[in-house]
Amino acid sequence: MRIVCVDDDPIFLAIVTEYLRALDMEVVATFGDPQQALREAEAGRIATDLFLLDLEMPGMTGAQLCAGLRATADHKATPIIMISSVTERDRVKAALEAGAHDFLHKPLESVELGARLSMVERILDERKRTAALQHEIGSLRAQPGFGFGFEDAVLPNAEDGVVDYMVLENHLVSLGWSGLPGTVVICFRLRNALWAYGHLERLDYYDFLSEAAEQILEALPAAQYRLAFAGSGDFVAVLDRGSRLDPVDLQMGLQAAHGPMWQAYRDLDIPAPDIAVGMPVQAPILGAVPLRLLRAARMQVVAGDGIMPDRRGEPARGGGGRVSAFWQ
Asked: Which is it for strands 275-277 and 225-231: parallel, antiparallel or unpaired?
C-alpha cells in the first residue's frame, strides 16, 4: 500500500517511515510542510493509497490540509489518518468532519498502526470490488452467475450521502471510548429486498437498492449522519452524538418520499422499495462496542414489522410501534 506522510517534525517522520517499512508499506513521499503537500496534490503529482497527517502543524493544520485534499480531484475519497498528541474532542471532531477516516495518538505503537492500516486495506479492497462491479454493471446486463449475493454490502449508486459499510464501521471504531457513548445508530430495512433480489435481474436489483437509498436520504432530517448498505436489505445510519430522531415521523416521511425511479416503477407495475424503520440504538456510557452497536440496531427492525403508520396516519400498534423513553 502506498502511503504519504506529512508532519513538521523530521524525527517523527523518520520514525513513522521505519514503522511503515517494517510493515511492508511503501512510503512514496514525506513532507515537512503541509502547504507544499497540498500544492503537490492540487497539481496532481501525488499518487497514494493513504495519507498520514499530523494534526498540529505551523501554517496549516492537519484538518485544513485534510479539507484541501478532499477538494482535489484525485483525493476526494483517499483514506486519511490523522496522527497527533492532541486528545481534545473538538479538534478530533473537526478533523473527522474535514474528511479524515481515522485518528491515531502519539506516541505511535507499531501494533496499533498495523491494525489501522489493515482496516484501510480492507476499505480499499472493498472499493476495488465495488468499482469493478459498477464498471461491469455499466456495460453488461445481468447474466446467470453475474453480480453479487443478497448478503453482500454493495455500495448503491445514490447521488450523495452513502458510504462504504466498512467506512461506516471504521468511523465508529475511530470515535474511541470517549466519542462513542451517546452515538446513535438506526437501521432501515428494505422489506421487499428478498423479493426484488429473486425477481429482478442484478442490474435492476442494484437500481432498486439505489432507489431505496435515495428515499432514505430524502426522509432523513438535516442532521450529521453517515448512511451505508449493510447487505440483506439493511441500510444503517450513524448519527452524531446528541442527535434526536422520531422514528414514527421518519417512517411517515419514508412513506411520502419518492426516489427518481418511483414513477417508472408505477408504470411497469413493479413494487417500489418498502422500507421499515427500526428503533434507534444509543451507545451506552460504559462498555460500548462499535460492531455490537451495529448488530443491535439491525435487531431493532424485522422484515414484517417496523414502525408503520396505519391508513389514518397513526402509528401502528404492536412491537414496531413502540418508542423508547429515550426518544420521547
From this structure: unpaired
Per-residue pLDDT band at 318 (split at 50, 70, 90) = very low
| Contact (Cβ atoms closer than 8 angstroms) between residue 190 and residue 233 | yes
* Whole-number CA gyration radius for the chain: 21
Nearest by Cα to 274 from 260, 254, 247: 254
| Paired residues of 4 in beta bridges | 29, 51
Q: For residue range 211-254, list pLDDT tens digits in order.
A: 898 888 888 775 567 889 999 899 999 887 767 778 888 888 88
What gap in Å lies between CA 323 and CA 286, rounded to an integer? Answer: 23
pLDDT digits (tens, 9 = 90+) for 33-77: 999 999 999 999 999 999 999 999 999 999 999 999 999 999 998
Contact 207, 193 (CB under 8 A): no
* Helix (H/G/I), strand (E/B), else coil: 74: coil
- CA dihedral 45→49→52→58, nearest 10 degrees, is 20
C-alpha cell of residue 191: 422489506
Whole-prediction pTM: 0.51
The set of residues, in sequence order, having a beta carbon less than 8 Å from that of 45 and lying 6+ positions away, is: none
Give the three cell numbers for residue 240: 452524531
Helix (H) or strand (E) holding 52: strand 50-54
User: Which domains, ranges and CATH numbers included, belong to the chain?
Assistant: 2-120 (3.40.50.2300), 143-327 (3.30.70.270)
CB neighbours of residue 28 within 10 Å: 15
**pLDDT confidence of residue 160:** 64
* Residue 161 or residue 219, greater confidence: 219
Q: Are 124 and 117 in contact (CB under 8 A)?
A: no
Sheet holding 50-54, edge to edge: 26-31, 2-6, 50-54, 80-84, 102-105
Contact 245, 327 (CB under 8 A): yes
- DSSP assignment string, 119-155: HHHHHHHHHHHHHHHHHHHHH----TT-S--TT----
